Amino acid sequence: MVRPRILILRAPGTNCDAETAHAFDLAGGLTDKLHVNRVLENVGLLSEFQVLCIPGGFSYGDDIAAGRIFGGQIRHHLAETLTAFREAGKLIIGICNGFQVLLKTNLLAAGDAAGPTATLAANDSGHFEARWVRLSTQPGNCAFLNGIQELELPVAHGEGRFVTRDDDVFDRMNGSGKFVLRYAAPAQTAIKISQFAIAPTVPYPANPNGALGDVAGMCDESGRVFGLMPHPERFVDWMQHPRWTREPARPAGDGLRIFQNAVRYFN
């Protein structure tokens, strides 16, 4: 079996790099963790890898806005390199803070003359949310969600509310199949979600941040760039689940499937 090389790209304030590397290792990949400055010094390093992951945390302390400084570094210094990385058939994933970073790099939602088309804003609750959520998928051609219909994962963020500049932008993104991951209501209060819903249709706390259309993650048109707010690396072992002693055991946590899909993509 081919063991793709995965680069975990970190910055000051990143704090989920070790867990994410562990998840990719469990899935069969070969991981390396590098500070963004090492890559800026030698962009040729990226050619040695098949998967690039921007993990969660608080890059640069989120001093200006979540992911903005890290995203700016990538947009100004690595944009062409990462575009070539994707066009070479390689994969890019951003988790939580990494999703915030990707949205600021134009890899997931390209801006235009009027400015950014989408961002992740402060949670509607007005505070940091750390809880488990149910998720439904519409994978389309997203390499990371292949064969996955639903997930249960933890979230931990203060700025995770997906918003678009206007309704037209949302409809355009929705119509192109970019919204591959959405928050889902608990089974006993399940609500049918309109394909073109814009306002949140899943109530808090099942939708933990008030994201438009309950969007929890999105993929680019190629299916090779994926960003999500929940943390799959925090649920790769069944014993990480809060009800692991009260429910039938599973062979692995739901999150592991996302990393396994990334590895299988190269086989």
Polypeptide structure, described:
The protein has 267 residues and is an alpha/beta fold. The radius of gyration is 17 Å and the shape is globular. The protein starts with a strand and ends with a helix. It has a single domain (5-264), classed as 3-Layer(aba) Sandwich (Rossmann fold). The longest helix has 11 residues, at 17-27. It contains 7 helices and 11 strands. Mean pLDDT is 92; it is low at 190-196.
Entry summary:
With 267 residues, the chain is of the alpha/beta class.
What labels describe this entry?
267 residues; alpha/beta; Rossmann fold; nine-stranded mixed sheet; two-stranded antiparallel sheet; 7 helices; 11 strands; globular
Proportion of beta-strand residues: 15-25%
CATH architecture: 3-Layer(aba) Sandwich
The CATH class assignment is Alpha Beta
Q: What value does the average pLDDT take? A: 92
> H/E element string?
EHEHEHHEHEEEEHEEEH
Biggest sheet features: 9 strands, mixed
Shape: globular
Q: What's the structural domain tally?
A: 1
* Sheet with the most strands: spatial strand order: 2-1-3-4-11-10-9-6-7
Total of helices: 7
Q: Please bin the fraction of helical residues.
A: 10-25%
Superfamily at the CATH H level?
Answer: Class I glutamine amidotransferase (GATase) domain
Number of strands: 11
